[in-house]
Amino acid sequence: MGGGWCGERGVVERADVVIVGAGAAGLSLAHRLDRALSGRSVAVVETPETALRPPERTWCFWEAAAGEWDAAVSHRWHALAAVGPDGTVWRSRIHPLVYKMVRSRDFEALVRGGLRRTRTLWGTVTEVVDGPDRAVVRLRGADGAESELAAGLVFDSRPPALPPADGVTLLQHFRGWFVRTDRPRFDSSAAVLMDLRVPQPERGVAFGYVLPFDARTALVEYTEFTREVLDDAGYDAALRDYTGRLRLGVFTRTGTEQGVIPMTSAQLPGRVGRRVFRIGTAGGATRPATGYTFSGVQRQTRQIAAALAAGRLPVRFPAHRRRHLFLDAVLLRGLDEGLVDGAEFFAALFRSTPLPRLLRFLDGETTPLEELAIGVRTPVAAMTAALWSQVRAGRRGRRGDTQS
Fold first, then answer.
1. Regions of the chain where pLDDT drops below 50
2. Which SUPFAM superfamilies does the entry mention (predicted)?
C-alpha cells in the first residue's frame, strides 16, 4: 500500500502495518518488521505532544554476554547484590548472564538509525477503529488538524487509561537520583537489585535500587509495589532517608528518573480485534511480579515478526508462561491483601536461591521442579493463604461471568 487520498477528516495515509507509539515495544517491533517484511509498508505513529511523550528513562535486563542491543548498552554488571531487612548482604556473580542497562535515548538512536523502509508519522492517536478489511487510526496533528491512517494491521503500544477490572493491580512506582559523591562510595562491580532496609508500607513492599557506574557515580532509586503513588515530597523524603542509609556523605544530584509501571494479574490479550493488537505493557509484556518489561517486549516482538514473515496473523504472542503468571498472581494478591510480608518474601528468595537460578526463574526458563524448590523456601504459610485467596477470587470471577 502507498500514497494518500482525501476523506472527510483530511488526507489519509495507508500502510500495511501501523505501530502506535515509539517506546521500547513500538521501536523493537519496527526494528524487526523493517527486516522481516521487505514487501510491505510499515509506519510508526509518534505523538508530537511533549506532555504525552514519556521522559527519558533507563531499561535494565539480563542476558548472555552478547546481545542484539549491545551497541546501546551503557553499563554492564557481572555480579548482583541484595540486602535484607536486617542488613544481611547476598552478593553473587551471575555468569553466564550479564545485567545490562540501556538508556532510552541510545536505544531510540540505534533503532531509528537502522530503519530502512519504515516511515515515522507524527500525530496524536485519538481512536483506533477495527474493521473487517482494514483498521483506521485517527490522528490529531500538532496544529489540531484531524486525519486518518488506513492500516492492514495495527499494533498499539499505548498503556491503558485505566487498570483492568479483573485481577489485582499494583503499581511499581519509583524515583531515582543520579548522584556524584565527593569521594569513592560505590562498588561498581555489582548492581544492588533490592535493598530491603527501607521502611515498609503496610501492604506491598518498598526497597532501594542502586546501579553504580563507577566508584563515585550511580543511579540510586527508591521503589514501592503498592496501589498508590507518592507525591513529590514523599519520594524526596524516601530518597533522603535511603541515601543516608547508604552513607553517601556529600553528593551532587546530576539528574532524576521517575516512572510508574502497572503490575497486574489481569489477563491482557494481545489480539483485541480483527486487525488490532496490543504490545508492550498493554499487551502483557511486563512480568507481573517484578515489573521488568524489556525482555518480555523482545520475546513478544520476535513472535509477531516471525508470524507476519510467515504470512500468518499473530493470534497469540505470550511474553510469559501461564504457570509463571499464576505464581505472580498469587504473590500480587498476597501483597495487596497484606497476607505476605513483602520484605521477608523477597529476602527469603535471595537467602535460599542462587542468583543465576533466580534470574532464570524470573525470565521463565526454570523447570517446574526448580520452581517447586524455590517456592518451598519462601514463607510457606503466607503464600498458601495467598494461594487460596487467589483460587477463591478466580471462582468468584467465573461465577460472575456465568451470571452475566
1. 1-8, 11, 402, 404
2. FAD/NAD(P)-binding domain
pLDDT digits (tens, 9 = 90+) for 91-121: 999 999 999 999 999 999 999 999 999 999 9
CA neighbor of 103 nearest in space, from 138, 59, 66, 145: 59
> Which residues have CB under 8 Å from 116's CB, separation 6+?
34
Q: Terminal CA-to-CA distance of the chain, rounded, Å? A: 43
Residues forming a β-bridge with 353: none
Q: Could you tell me which of 82, 170, 79, 80 has the C-alpha nearest to residue 347?
A: 82
Phi first, then psi: give them for residue 206, nearest 5 degrees.
Answer: -130, 150
Q: Which pLDDT does position 226 carry in this prediction?
A: 98
Q: Which domains does the chain carry? A: 4-56+103-159+265-309 (3.50.50.60), 169-264 (3.30.9.10), 322-403 (no CATH)
- HSE-CB at 56 with a 13 A cutoff on CA atoms is 10
Phi, psi values for residue 181, rounded to 5°: -90, 165
Strand partners, 11: 6
Other C-beta atoms lying within 10 Å of the C-beta of residue 111: 21
Order the strands of the 205-212 sheet from edge to edge.
Answer: 89-93, 79-83, 190-195, 205-212, 217-226, 169-181, 251-264
Q: Rounded to whole angstroms, how far apart are CA atoms 37 and 42?
A: 8
